[in-house]
Amino acid sequence: MELRVLQYFLAIAREESISKAAEVLHITQPTLSRQIKELEEEFQKQLFIRGNRKITLTKDGILLKQYAQEILNLTEKAQRELLKDQEELAGDIYIGGGESATMRLIMRVIVKMQKMYPQVHFHLFSGNAQDVADKLDSGLLDFGIFFDPVNLSQFDYFTLPGKETMGVLMRKDSLLAKYDEITPDLLKNESIILSEQYIVKNEIAGWIGGNERKLNIQVTYNLINNPALLVEEGGGYALTFGNIIQLHDDSPLCFKPLSPRLEEGIHIAWKKYHVFSKQSETFLELLKEEVKEV
Questions:
Q1: Greater confidence, 150 or 251?
Q2: Same domain membership, residue 270 and residue 139
Q3: Which of 41, 65, 75, 241 has the fewest CB atoms nearer than 10 Å to its CB?
Q4: What is residue 145's predicted lDDT score, i.e. its pLDDT?
Q5: What average pLDDT does the segment 53-64 reach?
């Protein structure tokens, strides 16, 4: 399996047409068809469903698309690292994490590094803990930001200052807005919007004194911005960290912490035994300096 063939495969998946993909790739349609046929024979799997108007991916094709994109991304990353000028600090740093006000610390370090080394470029990925861990483990990220509860035994990491407070995002005119803190009993009969992460559900289960099924979970999410719109429309109460959604005086929403309090630590992690690029090593050093100042 050659990288070139994976690029052909992704072009067809994107264009949903062999003829259009051939035009984009500047090769003949018979050549492209032959390459894809040989790829299917190599895997002994059908990768595309040929329709009258467009081509769609099979289940195996969808799986290959995911891996093919990761393989090509890693290849491009390796090429940039190996071909760059070693005398000047330059290159790319990939950072992933969940949505949190704590990410402001990371952004301050990025700004500082941009001023010092303008040839270093940053790529930010937002996702839940599992998304970030998968990309970190596969080498698509240099660093991952994680919030408790999380199992980081497969990574090296250090803990960042501060904690995130778990609470409830709600409308200001909702029935629960009159309370300063939200107890389990107050939520038991309400429509709940909760993170889809299993480990978060487990913690909420412990907080409520049993399991999360005691809550009426109507919607799950991986990132909070869209669910916040649902809360605005009266779609329920969202359990999330405070300070993620900026709540101004004229905002229809408010945030109330849980009682008993749930406060989560924050960690930055990287692959064990990882050989850092010079720019990643410099970023980590600057971050540690910033943490000392905090």
A1: 251
A2: yes
A3: 41
A4: 94
A5: 89
177 shares its domain with 193: yes
Same domain membership, residue 275 and residue 132: yes
Same domain as 58, residue 94: no
Q: Are residues 269 and 132 in the same domain?
A: yes
**Helix 18-25 vs helix 29-43: angle between axes, to the nearest 10 degrees?**
110
Q: Are 137 and 198 in contact (CB under 8 A)?
A: no
Whole-number average pLDDT of the chain: 87
H helices of the chain, in order, are 3-15, 18-25, 29-43, 59-83, 103-116, 129-137, 184-187, 198-208, 225-232, 278-293
- Interhelix angle 18-25/3-15, rounded to 10 degrees, is 130
Which structural domain range is residue 193 located in? 164-263
Count of domains observed in the chain: 3
pTM of the predicted model, to two decimals?
0.65
Give the CATH number of the domain where residue 60 resides. 1.10.10.10
Question: Which DSSP string corresponds to 16-45?
Answer: T-HHHHHHHHTS-HHHHHHHHHHHHHHHTS
Give the CATH number for residue 222.
3.40.190.10
**Residue pair 119/90 in contact by the 8 Å Cβ criterion:** yes
From residue 250, how far is each of 172, 175, 254, 263 by CA, in Å?
10, 19, 10, 27
Residue 212 has pLDDT above 70, yes or no: no
Residues 171, 155 share a domain: no
- Between helix 29-43 and helix 3-15 the angle, nearest 10°, is 110
pLDDT interval class at 197 (50, 70, 90): confident
106 and 235 belong to one structural domain: no
pLDDT for residue 294 is more than 70:
yes
How far apart, in Å, are the Cα atoms of 232 and each of 145, 211, 247, 257?
28, 27, 12, 18
Where is the domain boundary, 32, 60, 81?
Answer: 81
